Amino acid sequence: MRVLSVVGARPNFMKLAPVDRELVARGVEHVIVHTGQHYDRGMSDAFFEELWIPVPDYHLGVGSGSHARQTADVMQRLEPILVELRPDLLLVYGDVNSTLAAALVAAKLGVRVGHVEAGLRSGDWTM
Fold this sequence. Notes:
By secondary structure, the protein is an alpha/beta fold. The protein has a single domain (2-108), classed as 3-Layer(aba) Sandwich (Rossmann fold). The protein is built from four helices and five strands, in the order βαβαβαβαβ. It has helices spanning 10-25, 45-50, 67-85, 97-109, and strands spanning 2-7, 29-34, 58-59, 89-93, 113-116. Strands 3-2-1-4-5 form a five-stranded parallel β-sheet, sandwiched between helices. Strand 4, helix 4 and strand 5 (113-116) form a beta-alpha-beta unit. Helix 3 crosses helix 4 (97-109). The longest helix has 19 residues, at 67-85. The mean pLDDT is 89.
């Protein structure tokens, strides 16, 4: 089984760490794609080192820009990777631009999508 995780921002990295460890422990091929939404060392590389996350297999280098620009860039750069690798499952994390973009591309290509979030609930439906 091949699982591809797409991350791009600090909150994503923290959620990725235990998922990566569990997938590797189960012998699942886990491909990590870093979109580069948060691209400087303090907002990216340091988290990979401190959380013992492997160096990403792909780095899209999206960088800063408007929400529309980031989303479009992730979609354009991720699509050929998904076409080539055809993962059994694409995992997205949190609620950042990279999450939306990756889920859209995967859905359009017929790749199953899983969403990892903290699971916290406020109970307030007006939020």
